[in-house]
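Example (one chain per record):
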Amino acid sequence: MAKGGERWYASALASARSSVRANAPVYAALFVIFLAIAVVVFSPVAANITTIVPGTGGDVYQNLWDIWWVGYSTFTLHSSIWYTNLVFPPIGASLAFQTMMPIGSLLSTPFQGVSLAFAYNVVFFVSFAVSGITMFALARYLTKSGYAAFIAGLAFSFSAFHFMQAIAHIDWLFIAWLPLSAYFFIRIARGDGGRLQPVGLGLSVVLTIFMGDFEQGIMLMLLLLALFFAYLVFRRARILRRAFWADIGIAAAVTLAVGSFGFAPVIGSLLQPGAISSINQYNTVQSLQSWSDNLLSFFVPGPFNTLFAVPGSSSYVFGYDPTETTAYVGYVALALSLYAVYRDRKRAALWAVVALLFGWLAIGPNLTVGTVNTGIPGIYSAYIRIPGLNVIREAGRFDLVVSMATSILAALGMSLVLSDGRMKRHALAVTAVLGALIVLEGSGMMTGALAAATTTKISVPAVYYSIAGTAGNFSVLNLPLLPDQSSPYPQLYGGKALLYTAITRKPAVGAYLTRWNSSEQAYLLNMPLIVQAYNLQLSGNMVYSSPIQENYTAQTLLTMFNYNVGVVALDGTAYNQSSLNQITGYLNSMFGTPVLSNSTLVYTTTKAMGSSLFKNYVSYPVLSDWSPKYAVINGSFRTVWIPLGYGAVVTYAPFANYTDAQRKVLSGYSDDINTTISFQAEYTGGPVTIYLESLDQYGHVHQITQIPLTGAMTTYTANVVLTSGPRLPNTLFFAPVASYNSSYALISNITFSRR
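Predicted structure:
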C-alpha cells in the first residue's frame, strides 16, 4: 500500500475507534430501550415469538420464504439468490424483483434453526431498534440534543407509516438507512467528519437497497438530490470544494463495489425484453390512485391503532389497503414541527420543504380529500413518466421521506422547547411523556382483536414433511393457486405454496412472487384444473372457458406431465363444504383416494398420467392470441373467442398405437396422425377469411386451407396431418384476415378427431 494510502487508512481507523469508544454505550442503551418498546407494542408476537408472525395473507408466507431462500441458496446450493428453480418448473423464475431484503435475510440464518417464524421475528424487532438509532444519530447531529434526538427516533421508528409497512412487507422493516445516508451526506457537504464519511455513505446506500429495496434506493437518491440543490443554493461554497466531489466519488465506488452482487443481476433482468412492462403492469391512473395517500390520512390515526383509530375511517380515508395509504404524522410530532418552523425558520425550512415535496408525491396522480377525488393533479403524475423511476407504483410509500423529515422537525422543535430554562430542568420527564404519546399515537398497541387481525400463526401440514422425505425428482401442484381478488387476502394460497417449498425442497407448479410476468401467468392458465379450482372459489362451479372443446381432464394430465407434477395438494380450508365435495369428487375420480393431513388432501398423479396420456388430442390456445367475448349466438348468450394476430393453438396429438406410445416417447419416435379439425365461426362487421396454417418443428409455416366465413355461426372442417407425442406439440394458426378494420371473427368449439 502506498504511503498516502497507509496514512488515510490509519487516520480512518483511528477515527473509527474513537467514535466507537465515545458512542458505543449510548447506542447500546438506545438499542435496548427501542427494542423493549417494540416488544411492548407488539407483545402478542413477542409472547409467541416462535410460532406467530406479524402480518396476514400471502405476503407473510412470502416473507418467511424470502429469509429462508437467501440462506439456502447461498450456503446449501451455492448458487445465485436471484434465480430459483423451486417455482414454475422446469423453467424456474427470476427473483431480481423479489422483495427479499437479502442482507437482513442472511443475518436471520443463525436463528432459523429454532423456526422460520422465530428468525423473522428477531429481524422484525431488531428493525425497530436500529431504525430508531439511525434517526437518533442524524437528529443529534443536527440539534446537538440527545433528548430531542430520542424524540426523533421514536417518531420515525414507531410512526404509523412504519407500523403499517412492517406488518406487511419484509423489505420495509429496515427504514433505518435513509436517515443514516443523509447523516453521512450532510457531514460530507459540511466538510465535517474526516475519512470515514464517504465510506459510510456508500455502505448506507447499499444497505438502503439490499436491506430495504430499490424503491427505497430511488427515494434516497431523490432525497440526496434535494439536499444537494439546497446546499447548491444556500451553501454553494461547501459543495464546490474538490474534497466534496472526491468524497462523493469514493462513496459511489464503495456502493458499486459492495453492491455489485445485486446490481448486476437486477440490471441484467431489467434489460430483458418485457421486463419493464411486467414491473409497470399496474401503472394505470386508477390503480396508482388506489395506492396513494388521501389528504386526510396525514391527520387521521391509522386504522389499526387500537387507542386512537377513528371508527369507519377506512371507508373514506385509507381505502382497501391501509398498509400503503397510512400517512399519519401524529399531533405531538406535528405540533413540535410547527413550533420549529415558527421559532427557527432558517434551520427548519429545508426539512419542511422536503416533507411537503414528498408528501405531494405521496398523494399520487390526483389530490383526494375524503371520498372526493378533486382532479387536482399531483407532481406524481409527472414523476411516473420518468423512465427507470416509475417502478414506484405505490405513491404512498413516499411517506418514508415525509416521516423522516417530520421526525427531524420534531427534534428541532423539541430542542427549542428544552432551551427554555424551566423545561430544561424537567427534560427527562418531558421527553418521557411526549415520547410515550408519540409511540401511542403512531403504533398504538397490538392487542385483542387487532392482534388476531394483524398476525398469522404459522402451521405447516405434516404431509409436506412427508413429501420432503419422498425420493424422486417431481414437482407439487397446490390448489387453489391463482390470486382471488374478491378475497381480503388475494395471494394467500400462492403464498402458502411458496413457503411449502422451503419444507419439501420440491418445486411448486406456481406460487406468489412479488413481480410475475405474463409468461408465468399463461403457464398456470394452461392447466384447466388450476382454473377450475379458482372458478370454484369464485362461483361454486368448476368451469373452464376456452375456444377448444375437448376433454379438459386430458389437458390437465398432459400439462402435469410436462410440468413433472408428482403430487397434488388441495387446501380444504379454501372451500365451503359443497364446493369441497365437488372438487374432491373430481380429484378422486382422476387420482383415487387421497391422504388427509390438517385439512389438506394429497393425491399422487403417476398412475393417472400413465393410464391416460397419449390417448387423446390435447390442445390449448396461446392466451395472448385469443380474447373472450360474451355474445348472442342463435338467440342465446354464450362465450365465443376472437382470434388476435395469428390465433395460435398448441396441439398434442395421440399415438396411433397407445401400447407402443411409451417406447416411442422414450426413444424419440413419433407417429403421423391424419386429423380432422372442426370449429364453429362467424364474422362481425364485414367478411373475414380464416387462414388455417401449421408451424412445423423447423419453424416453417404451411397453409392448410382458406375458409371464408359466412355471416351466421356455422361449423367448418379441415384435414391436417399432425405429429403425435406429448413432447412434440403442433402449433396451428387460425389467422383471420378481415375485409374492413372493424371486422373480426368469432370462433368457438374447436375440436380434433382422427380420420
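Caption: Residues 463-612 form one domain.
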